[in-house]
């Protein structure tokens, strides 16, 4: 897809924390800059992997502002701003617009289950009207987590009512047929479809999708960049196979502590293991098995990071 604002590989960035579980902005900015230097075109901050819903409104603003202050360009960040509260969603989205972000990722209002399409249309209409022009709105389809899927009819209504405002979708459903249906229905209107599953990157690009926004990109973005650049051929196929293998390793244990463990061991920085409840760090046994799973893919040591032997010194 041409002219996609976040076309390519986007990491759903881990939110680094201090031992007392406050945002660790220095450590997070360092990781963000490494991602941009190692295959990422953009950064999905404060999403599911970034534990956004474990942070308060003021903390979420602090994180975005802190990353910008530390040299992470606002233009490459797509912060998650969707909340159960309409007022909070609007406040965070306007804040992101004022700080120079080009787009935000919107969860549906997820507390009340089984809302109608009419109810969701009313909600997102209010968001669009209250936020105003100047920032692209991306829908976040993750029904396993939110229990609120986006129907094709709803997306079509939003595109018709707000031309150029609802710019795309991150589909973390894992249902490729659903992603393909979105592309077939709306790509001709410039609607950007991003897979939330690494194993589909090469396929979605071939179908007319825009790229990926994935958790495993915290560690496998090097290979995602090859797939995005090459698309087809032996090198792209080998890189896509690595994406599939590392995705499997990333989901072999709970995803967020799994990725924190991989980055902690790869950098030798124990601080990456800090995590807010209800999530917990991996046990020693889990951590060793997690690392072994990543090693078995051939991805370790991660390009650009200290090898495990050095990290252990």
UniProtKB/TrEMBL annotation:
<protein>
    <submittedName>
        <fullName>Dihydrodipicolinate synthase family protein</fullName>
    </submittedName>
</protein>
<dbReference type="InterPro" id="IPR013785">
    <property type="entry name" value="Aldolase_TIM"/>
</dbReference>
<keyword id="KW-0456">Lyase</keyword>
<dbReference type="InterPro" id="IPR002220">
    <property type="entry name" value="DapA-like"/>
</dbReference>
<comment type="similarity">
    <text>Belongs to the DapA family.</text>
</comment>
<dbReference type="Pfam" id="PF00701">
    <property type="entry name" value="DHDPS"/>
</dbReference>
């Amino acid at each position: 897809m041409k002219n996609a604002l976040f076309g390519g590989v986007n990491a759903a960035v881990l939110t680094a924390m201090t031992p007392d579980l406050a945002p660790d902005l220095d450590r997070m900015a360092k990781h963000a800059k490494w991602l941009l230097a190692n295959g990422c075109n953009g950064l999905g901050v404060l999403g599911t992997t970034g534990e956004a819903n474990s942070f308060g409104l003021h903390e979420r603003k602090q994180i975005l502002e802190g990353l910008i202050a530390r040299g992470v360009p606002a233009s490459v960040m797509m912060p998650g701003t969707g909340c159960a509260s309409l007022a909070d969603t609007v406040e965070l989205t306007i804040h992101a617009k004022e700080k120079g972000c080009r787009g935000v990722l919107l969860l549906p209002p997820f507390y009340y289950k089984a809302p109608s399409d009419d109810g969701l249309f009313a909600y997102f209409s209010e968001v669009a009207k209250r936020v105003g022009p100047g920032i692209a709105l991306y829908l976040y389809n993750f029904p396993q987590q939110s229990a609120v899927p986006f129907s094709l009819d709803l997306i079509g209504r939003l595109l018709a009512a707000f031309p150029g405002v609802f710019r795309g979708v991150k589909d973390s459903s894992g249902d490729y047929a659903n992603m393909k249906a979105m592309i077939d229905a709306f790509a001709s209107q410039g609607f950007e479809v991003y897979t939330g599953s690494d194993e589909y990157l090469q396929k979605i690009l071939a179908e007319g999708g825009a790229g990926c926004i994935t958790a495993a990109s915290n560690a496998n973005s090097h290979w995602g960049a090859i797939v995005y650049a090459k698309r087809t051929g032996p090198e792209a196929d080998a890189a896509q196979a690595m994406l599939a293998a590392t995705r499997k390793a990333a989901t072999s244990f709970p995803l967020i502590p799994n990725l924190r463990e991989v980055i902690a061991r790869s950098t030798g920085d124990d601080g990456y293991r800090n995590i807010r409840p209800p999530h917990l760090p991996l046990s020693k046994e889990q951590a060793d098995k997690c690392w072994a799973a990543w090693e078995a893919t051939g991805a370790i040591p991660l390009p650009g990071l200290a090898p495990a032997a050095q990290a252990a010194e």
